[in-house]
Write a structure and sequence with these properties.
Order of helices and strands: EHEEHHEEHEEEHHEE
Largest sheet: 5 strands, antiparallel
Structural class: alpha+beta
Shape: globular
Number of helices: 6
Length: 224
């Protein structure tokens, strides 16, 4: 049975690129990019937004039927011109990874009542043991229960292991990464919860000893 996958794309925009203005050069290119994606056989849906902490970086999440489904698109003759067209508004290169997020689709943490998504990545040694992986996943489930019961403005969670091994300065060599999308009604709601005793009593569940690094930022996604 094939497993659905979410492609996670980090797009650092060139200065002044306004993808929100459909009549601007950058806006037209982004609209064409999304239109091309929507025409692919194994495409399901997409979510787009700028990082709150660094508005020059756009994040695009794309749900596919499977990793092979995305690869079939990448093997098309028009894929290279498609990427080249997108890169014309990019400052540097694209960051691309795939994750098996649960639940799928991860819409509960990216759209609907979710107005902003806390995006968290935990970096572990590539050779993390099965025991440490299992313990971490169990702890995340416990933390999610705390959010459901105690966090005002919490709307949902989707998470899973990234398929590729990624690099991080805190890890020597490649890292195994867990990607979390945590939905909130606002950034303020998330920040307010961080000041509560419930957060302080349970945050250790999100900070396992086996991790090497954690990154976090917020993105108000729009479902495409």
């Amino acid at each position: 049975m094939t497993q659905p996958v979410t492609e996670i794309v980090r797009i650092p925009l060139q200065p002044g690129a306004s993808i929100e203005d459909a009549n601007s050069p950058a806006g037209k290119i982004m609209s064409e990019t999304l239109a091309t994606l929507a025409q692919q056989d194994h495409y399901q849906r997409a979510y787009l937004g700028r990082q709150v902490e660094n508005s020059s970086i756009v994040q695009l999440y794309i749900d596919w039927d499977s990793l092979d489904g995305h690869k079939k698109f990448m093997n098309q003759s028009y894929y290279s011109p498609f990427i080249k067209h997108l890169l014309s508004i990019v400052d540097g290169g694209l960051g691309v990874e795939h994750a098996n997020l649960s639940p799928h689709p991860p819409a509960v943490a990216l759209s609907g009542t979710t107005k902003v998504t806390e995006v968290v990545e935990h970096y572990f040694p590539a050779d993390i043991s099965e025991a440490d992986r299992s313990s971490f996943e169990t702890n995340l489930k416990e933390f999610a229960k705390v959010l459901e019961k105690k966090a005002e403005g919490y709307t949902g969670w989707a998470g899973g292991w990234v398929i590729e091994e990624l690099e991080h300065e805190a890890v020597q060599g490649k890292a195994k990464v867990w990607h979390s999308c945590i939905g909130w009604q606002s950034v303020d709601a998330h920040m307010a919860f961080r000041e509560t005793q419930d957060f302080k009593d349970n945050v250790h569940l999100m900070r396992p000893e086996s991790k090497k690094a954690i990154t976090m930022h917020h993105v108000p996604f729009q479902a495409i």
